[in-house]
Amino acid sequence: MANNLAKAVEVAFEEVIEGFDAECVMSREVQTRFPDQTTMQRAGDVEWISQDYSASVVTGLDVSASAQTDVIDRKVPITYRTPSNVLFSLDAKEMRDPTHLQRMGVAAKKALAGDIETSLMTEVNQRGGIVVAKTGDYSWDMAAEAEAQLIVRGVTAGMDRKHFLNAFDAQKVSKDLGNRAYIGDINKGAYERSKLPPIANFSTFRTDQLSNSVVTGTVTSTLVNGASQALTVAAYSGSALQDNRSMTLNCDGANVANVKLGDVFTLPSVFSVHSVTKQSTGQLQTFKVLANAAGALTITPAIVTTGPYQNVTASPADNAALTFLNTATKPINPFWSEDACLISFGQLAFPSGQGAQVMTARTKQGVPITVSYGFNHLTGKMTARFTTLYGVAVLQPEKCGFVVANQI
């Protein structure tokens, strides 16, 4: 084994590449890209991705005096995370058994794929603009409401819609299907293998990843501090690109300091609207807290009350009370349309012939994996490093969110 190290590492590397995509349940179901790496390095590993345009309709034969739709190139930043690595060593004694290296390849595959999955779920947990929070166990009705929330916003059946259930809530659905009096193929599969059919027109998947909605602190009597708070959509803020997904909402109240990252709330008379017609959906818009700076809450989605990118019926009134929805720490079940999220992959420039040996490859999904390894004859140890580089972003908060059950 010690004399055939290169071949053994190659076998372990092939194990990682061949089986990697199968470990990526959620990240296979989003958009991916691999931008030019020289450009990314010069930009500090940040890329700004354009969002969809939207337009306003004017009526009449003579439209010479009509208001034109402003062409606003809205962009969303996506930043590479610090590289994710699996690092391990084997000494000359351990390398006598070639299965050590092969099994570590399997472990590296699971760890790196799990890291990507966790990052994607966390991003949707923090940035998703639609939250369905209900009492009781997860049920078909909750998924149906999530789909309805997308439809009334204009996310039509022409767009692929995905829903991912954590193991506990998937078990509830499987049990419900398995208990049906009529045992067809779907019911039988649910009973025997916990196999999930499409739910409410979502392509439905079970995932082993967990991300919890947080428990709200003591935030009763938290009020909006100042009327007419809303975001003016723009491509730039001064000379810098503007991220239109979030804004600052000034609030006050005795317990405002207890509002924290991940809290979900609604505001009275602030309803979501259809993305094209701008008609009220009759559903209160949900907002997520990204940060709290002494009552200045950074929230997503931003409140936009006019123009082609309007997403709510009105801005909240002064002293409007925030109603918090997340009341118990429970795992979320994310959902999104096909264009809501993005993973951007990168490749580190590990040089070969500089001591360590280097191999690089990309999986069918496009995930770049690098393995570098070297042997120190003085310590009698081989050290190996498996590495990947990526960033995750929610491009359209109004097209994704999550269902969370068992709220008090």
Q: What is the total tally of β strands? A: 25
Proportion in β-strands: 25-35%
Mean pLDDT, rounded to whole units? 89
What percentage of residues falls in helices of 4 or more residues? 10-25%
Low-confidence stretches: 187-195
The radius of gyration over CA amounts to: 25 Å
Short description:
The protein is an alpha+beta fold and 408 residues long. Helices cover 21% and strands 30% of the residues.
Would you kindly provide a written description of the structure presented here, covering whatever features stand out?
- It is a single chain.
- This protein is α+β, with helices and mostly antiparallel strands.
- The protein has six helices and 25 strands.
- The protein has helices spanning 5-20, 37-42, 99-127, 140-152, 167-178, 185-193, and strands at residues 31-33, 46-50, 75-79, 84-91, 130-133, 161-166, 203-207, 212-213, 223-224, 236-237, 240-241, 247-252, 264-266, 271-273, 280-284, 287-293, 296-300, 323-324, 330-331, 333-337, 341-346, 357-362, 368-376, 381-394, 400-404.
- Strands 1, 4, 21, 22, 23 and 24 form a six-stranded mixed sheet that branches.
- Helix 1 runs parallel beside helix 3 (99-127) and helix 5 (167-178) crosses helix 6.
- It is globular, with a radius of gyration of 25 Å.
- The model is unreliable at 187-195 (pLDDT under 50).
